[in-house]
Specification:
Length: 429
């Protein structure tokens, strides 16, 4: 049953921020942490190619890539699960651990509800495609080269290609397990299977080989359609490292200071994009702070609060006073990326001039409209009421005031790139 609650992005600012982030770091998503999963995906593509086209499990829905993912996750949990740090960032680890504890095979019913989004294939698929590791749902040229380097470095030659070697037997062993599991619609191997060691010894998230890591580093830096290379090179430099570590230590995780320093050495295209992000985030911060303080005031008052009372909040007055100019500057910046019309359609009313009370009325209506338009059938607003006042719904009570600083509202992939660089040992001393 689809929930009517809409607990994220109550003002609809996330999609446009995501569009800008995609331009900044193509293929990279916030949930991505460990590039070793790209190697696992290359292995998955290669192994699944041994099976018949369009084959699915007996349950009629499970595809081979998901069966391979079950094996990777269960294998890592079985062998390394006693040391949580070794499987940190492994999607589905809790589901696998529970299935093992219950003595039942991992299956669609026992795994993630939406693995195509939250499993490691779902999380890393776009990056694999962007980097050429996957092409047209097949192993791409870069993917084949990655597997060749990995197999040689791991001492399992024969796993990929036509040659013989210790990897040939491993490959046959895993393909057979995939076939049996497709017929069973569940993992078909149990405790005594020697194949579990393959996943732990050769695909553990934190144990990339030196040549494998170098190949993935070079592939990430080979960015012809965005600014991923420039951002990553600055991040791993002494200056960039220092700035990001300071943000991490402060627990702000805002990229504003990092981006500001990057602008001074960025190419013209990247500088224009960073200035656009800066403008959009100044707009988003004003709106978000006003919204958050309204939630806080409704929570504090534990009853109906009128718009007149809420309009006296400092953050609401600041937003109504500054947003017309900020919105105009944002539109001007977004126009360079053909995003100005989208911004105006989404947020045009919030940039109109008027009193604090008039602006707050538009903010409330904007929130209600944002929630109504969420798929599939709309979501409930975070508060409810009428001209007599508004009451916050219990799920969305806010016990802290807004941030009231210049930090970004949204994330722009620096944390993911930092994790990549750390795993790949790209960080300069």
């Amino acid at each position: 049953m689809e929930s009517s609650e809409g607990g994220i992005d109550p003002l609809g600012t996330e999609p446009l921020a995501d569009t800008l982030a995609v331009k900044l770091a193509p293929g990279v998503r916030e949930r991505q942490q460990h590039p070793r999963f790209l190697t696992a995906m290359a292995a998955s593509l290669s192994l699944c190619d041994e099976l018949d086209d369009d084959v699915v499990a007996r349950d009629g829905v499970t595809e081979p890539w998901l069966v391979f993912e079950w094996y990777v996750v269960e294998g890592l949990v079985r062998i390394r699960g006693q040391t949580p740090s070794e499987i940190r960032g492994l999607p589905g680890r809790d589901k696998a651990a529970q299935a093992i504890a219950d003595g039942v095979p991992l299956s669609a019913k026992r795994y993630l509800k939406t693995p195509a989004i939250f499993g490691f294939h779902g999380i890393y698929r776009l990056l694999a495609r962007t980097l050429g590791i996957e092409q047209g749902e097949q192993l791409g040229e870069r993917g084949y080269e990655l597997l060749r380097i990995w197999a040689k470095e791991q001492g399992i030659e024969g796993f990929v290609g036509t040659g013989n070697g210790p990897g040939r037997w491993l490959r046959e062993q895993i393909v057979e397990a995939l076939r049996l599991s497709l017929d069973k619609s569940a993992v078909a191997r149990t405790n005594g299977w020697t194949g579990w060691n393959f996943f732990s010894e050769h695909l553990a998230p934190y144990e990339l080989g030196r040549r494998e890591a170098r190949f993935l580093s070079d592939t990430l830096l080979n960015d012809t359609d965005g600014s991923r290379r420039e951002v990553l090179e600055f991040l791993i430099s002494g200056k960039g490292r220092q700035l990001w570590l300071k943000e991490v230590a402060s627990r702000r995780y805002s990229e504003r200071i990092f981006h500001s320093a990057l602008r001074h050495r960025a190419s013209a295209d990247l500088r224009r994009l960073l200035l656009t992000i800066d403008a959009y985030e100044r707009f988003a911060r004003l709106v978000q702070d006003a919204f958050d303080d309204c939630l806080y005031e409704m929570t504090r008052r534990s009853g109906r609060v009128s718009l007149k009372e809420l309009s006296r909040l400092d953050s609401v007055k600041l937003a109504s006073r500054n947003l017309p100019q900020t919105a105009a500057e944002t539109i001007d910046r977004l126009d360079s990326f053909n995003l100005a019309l989208q911004f105006q359609q989404l947020f045009g009313s919030l940039g109109e001039r008027g009193t604090a009370g008039q602006w707050l009325e538009r903010l409330v209506e904007h929130h209600f409209k944002t929630q109504r338009q969420k798929p599939p059938d709309g979501k409930m607003p975070w508060f409810e009421g009428d001209e007599r006042g508004y009451i916050i719904r219990p799920l969305y009570r806010r016990y802290e005031q807004s941030r009231r600083d210049t930090s970004y509202v949204h994330l722009f992939r620096t944390a993911s790139l930092w994790s990549f660089a750390s795993d790949l040992k790209m960080l300069r001393q």
